[in-house]
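Private note to self, pasted from the team thread so I don't lose it. Backbone tokens:
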């Protein structure tokens, strides 16, 4: 009876998305709290950093490779909250955290469900594979959106409490930049998982794409050989401009969204054609 009931529920509109969100709601709350806690930590440190030239002087003495690896643009400006958080939050920790969430969620959406045997139950209902894939993608997008809303809310609250002076536009740009990078990595994971049925392959290739994107941006700052490839790095396109300080570049955002759309279409087609027997 439980299997029959599950099949009936799946036929309801967007039930697959709601099911995914219900299953992962506790994990999503923990992730949102983690982002808020990280922002709180950086915000509390901000008063001791503001106006302190020692940090800037120390940064300028570091090797160019090190500076490139830990900043999106290779420069540092600790005189403003946007510049400070651009290094501490947007340069490494923020992109790493959202990529981990997106990759694990994307890999579990199709390949993970198939590996656990749950996908067979879902597909036994009168629903198409394209619908299953689309609704799982929607669940990933909603999850990332919720995290970025929590991130933006935390930035706004702590900016107001500690006088950081971050405007709503800057906060929205920063959260959107992180979200788009997460969306790209998650799209790789869900597409590879749908195409192969392997959670390990989905996580591995998505992690490779995230790291490659990050390294291309970093190494392009210090070597002319890599520099022509920098515009194809999703990390550079949405975070290389330090959106908290300078705003989100529209061309970069659209380019990453286009890449996500291509990955989604390719993943959906390959999933629909794959032999699941």
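Design output:
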């Amino acid at each position: 009876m439980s299997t029959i009931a599950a099949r009936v529920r799946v036929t309801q509109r967007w039930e697959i998305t709601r099911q995914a969100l219900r299953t992962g709601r506790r994990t999503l709350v923990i992730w949102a709290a983690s982002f808020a806690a990280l922002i709180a930590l950086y915000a509390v440190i901000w008063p001791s950093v503001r106006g302190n030239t020692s940090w800037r002087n120390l940064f300028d003495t570091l090797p160019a490779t090190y500076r490139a690896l830990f900043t999106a643009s290779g420069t540092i400006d600790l005189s403003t909250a946007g510049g400070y958080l651009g290094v501490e939050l947007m340069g490494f920790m923020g992109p790493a955290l959202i990529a981990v969430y997106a990759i694990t969620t994307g890999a579990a959406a199709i390949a993970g469900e198939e590996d656990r045997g749950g996908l067979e139950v879902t597909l036994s209902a009168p629903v198409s594979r394209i619908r299953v894939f689309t609704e799982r993608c929607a669940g990933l997008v909603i999850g990332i959106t919720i995290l970025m809303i929590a991130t933006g809310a935390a930035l706004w609250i702590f900016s107001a409490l500690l006088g950081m002076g971050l405007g709503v536009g800057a906060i929205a740009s920063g959260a959107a930049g992180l979200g788009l990078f997460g969306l790209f990595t998650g799209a790789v994971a869900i597409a590879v998982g749908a195409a192969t049925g392997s959670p390990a392959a989905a996580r591995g290739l998505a992690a490779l794409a995230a790291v490659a994107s990050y390294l291309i941006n970093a190494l392009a700052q210090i070597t002319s050989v890599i520099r022509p490839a920098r515009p194809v790095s999703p990390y550079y396109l949405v975070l290389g401009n330090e959106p908290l300080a300078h705003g989100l570049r529209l061309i970069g955002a659209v380019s990453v969204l286009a890449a996500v759309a291509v990955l989604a279409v390719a993943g959906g087609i390959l999933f629909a054609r794959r032999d699941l027997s």
